[in-house]
Amino acid sequence: MTVRTVELPQLWMPYPLRVNPCLPALRQESESWAREMGMLGGGEGPSVRGSIWTGSAFHAMTVDQLTAWTLPDASLADLRLNHRFNIWALAWDDYFAAAFKQTGDLAGAQAFTARLHTFLRPEPGSRLPEPTNAVEKGIADLQQSLFPPRLAHWRHEFNRALAKYIDAGVEELANSRSGRIPHLIDYAPFRRESFAAHTALYSVELATGGRIPERIRHHRTVRALLDAFMDFMGLANDVASFEREVHEEHDVNNLVLVVGTSLAISLHDAVPAALNLVNARLRDFEHLRQQALPQLVRRSGLQPAERAELETWLQGACSFLSGLHAWYTGAPRYTSADHT
To answer: Where on the phi/psi map is residue 11: left (φ > 0), alpha (ψ -120 to 50), or beta?
Structure first.
């Protein structure tokens, strides 16, 4: 059973796709930062030493579309910043897979990850080590620009999310080496970390300027809504990348395998079951957004300005999910066997 046997549009998406009008400008400069960081080799042949992608492999990922589809309301400057973060996250993913997952080098992965932690310094002006590879160079560069004054409150939370993201890679590798498939009950919260889903809250705020008001941010209803929001991202990605991860990379950290093992069903039955689970989490998000959250807003006595800001953020979150859905169901990274 492969993912191409399943009609991916079965992934439910009630929100229309909107495209940022700055996409042409972003496309023109799409590879400049990746090349500057050493992630991108020259020409179409084998990558130069230390680079992660060839030019053709990089363009096949259509990271510019991913960014413009998920953040349709962002300014060009904010779009460019999030685009660089998206490139870095994919660079880390592909580098880690090639250097450690494919070789089973757990000790090397642990050393690489421990060193990468030293670049996640939450204090402004912290002195960072000298980068020794493209992944380190990319995150060192991003640390200088990710937290302008209006987003300074994100510095600690964002870097904590990145720390969990890179640590999850080591745990995934340990699972694959031992053949341990995670249990469904444990997998969803772990997938939020291994997908860096917590950083998406920052991306929506970056693009829209809207924020979740502090007085309800930690309420159970809001936490449930954010969990459902983040679950769709990583779990839908698992369905879209099932063939590549399971059949080609021999990865055990995938929702389809998790559902099949946890429920003791065949892969043939696990694929639609996983799809149904992803759709259910999006229905949870929509119910909380439309039904439970308005009740909380009324009870909490939010001011009109706070309500407007919350609605702006929620609309940005819906657009973010719609853009991810479009990328999962249309990007060559998921629909073609040709990938890095």
So the answer is: beta
